Amino acid sequence: MTSMARWAEVHRLAVTGREAQIARDVGDRVSGVWLATSRFSDVARLAGLTLTLGEDADAFYRLGWAKDATGDPTGALAAYGQALPLYRAAGDRGGEAATLSNIGEVYDGLGERQRALEYYGQSLPITREVGDRAGEATTLNNIGLVHDGLGEPQRALEYYGQALPILREVGDRAVEAVTRYNVAMIHRARGDLDQAVAELEQVVELDRQVSHPGLRSDTEMLVRVRQELAGADPGHGPR
Question: Are residues 155 and 208 in the same domain?
Answer without folding.
Answer: no
